[in-house]
Amino acid sequence: MSKLITMTGPSSVSQSRLIRLRDRRYTIRYPFAADAELIDMETGKQVSGVTSDISLGGCFVCTSKPLLVNTRARLTLERKGQVLETTVIVRIVKQRIGLGVEFFDLEPPNDRILSKWIETLRQSR
Questions:
Q1: How far apart are CA 26 and CA 100, in angstroms?
Q2: Residue 24's pLDDT band (boundaries 50, 70, 90)?
Q3: Spatial distance between the Cα atoms of 69 and 77, rounded to a whole number of angstroms
Q4: Do 114 and 106 form a contact (C-beta atoms < 8 A)?
Q5: Which of 16, 40, 43 is nearest to 99 (CA)?
Q6: Residue 25's pLDDT is what?
Q7: Which of 26, 74, 97, 113 is the most exposed place for a label (fewest CB within 10 A)?
């Protein structure tokens, strides 16, 4: 026999756990500055900014006009003449600060560019 348990609303404890889980990073992030351009794939809205950190899984883009959480966008990063282009999903938005994105569908040669950037950052630690 199974029991069905319902809740009328989340408690403050479960909300704080959800926030911590959402902010959890799955790969090491490194300080990293690159010019960033995002284009919302649904609306065409363009957002520009600068990254503050990067990892193999995503980056944080500092911008005063972020996109909404779960927005799929085309991201272009440019640093020292190298350009990385990929699709991303907005995972977190910090108002007036920026947004965290997860890389999605990172294809060659962009995967090699990212790997080189990360390796250089690892070696400089």
A1: 13
A2: low
A3: 20
A4: yes
A5: 40
A6: 53
A7: 26
* Cis peptide, bond prior to residue 31, ω within 30 of zero: no
Q: What is the pLDDT of residue 53?
A: 97
The answer to whether the CB of 105 falls within 8 A of the CB of 86 is yes
Q: Which of helix, strand or coil describes residue 27?
A: coil
Supply 66's token pair.
Answer: 């972020």
C-beta pairs of 8-14 under 8 Å, 24+ apart in sequence: none
Distance CA 43, CA 70 (A): 13
| Position 55 pLDDT exceeds 80 | yes
Residue 68 has what DSSP assignment? Answer: P
- Taking the C-alpha atoms of 88, 92, 93 and 94 in order, what is their torsion angle to the nearest 10 degrees? -130
Provide the 10 A C-beta neighbour count for residue 93.
16
The CATH architecture assigned to 27-123 reads Beta Barrel (2.40)
Average pLDDT of every residue of the chain: 85
pLDDT of residue 13 exceeding 70:
no
Given a cut of 80, whether residue 7 has pLDDT beyond it is no
